[in-house]
Amino acid sequence: MKTLRDIMTTEVESCSPVDNVYEAAVKMKEYDVGAIPICEGQQLLGMITDRDIVVRGVAEKKPNSTQVTDVMTEQLLTATPDMSVDEAAKMMAEKQIRRLPIVENSRLIGIVALGDLAVHKSTADEAGFALSEISESEEYHH
Q1: Phi first, then psi: what are they for 114, rounded to 5°?
Q2: Per residue in 27-76, pLDDT tens?
Q3: In this structure, is residue 140 part of a structural domain?
């Protein structure tokens, strides 16, 4: 059985709590990602998504200099590296999330995106199901 450790991305770019929304958006563009974890050291505090920037930033007329902590999502679902890929796909579908931070000993060590599940043949069905179930949710949307 494959675990998240087998498929997770370990080179994860992050922002610190003192970074601003503009800096997060530049990193999203540079790394072609839709979410950036917010970490203090290696401790995960939250995640800022492109949707957070639009809905909680631009739509509320906040300046680009607004700190990421003012618009980030704080209530995150996380997983451990030893969680099975099938279990993660099911959780992502049920909770309607596209990106799952991987945490070990309170430290961010990786991230699994829905696309990571889709590229692995053994999880293609689960990823397809997860994608069909996922729509942006008020509570979780990372």
Answers
A1: -55, -35
A2: 999 999 999 999 999 999 999 999 999 999 999 999 999 999 999 999 99
A3: no
Q: Domain span at residue 18?
A: 4-133
Q: Is residue 113 part of a domain?
A: yes
Is the model's pTM score more than 0.70? yes
The answer to the question of residue 46 being in a domain is yes
Q: Is residue 141 part of a domain?
A: no
Q: How many domains does the chain have?
A: 1
- 3 state SS for 101-128: EEEECCEEEEEEEHHHHHCCHHHHHHHH
The span from the CA of 39 to the CA of 41, in Å, is 6
Place of tokens 């610190």: 16
* C-alpha dihedral sign at 46, 50, 52, 58: positive
Place of tokens 């970490």: 39
Q: How far apart are CA 99 and CA 50, in angstroms?
A: 12
Q: What is the CATH number of the domain that holds 129?
A: 3.10.580.10
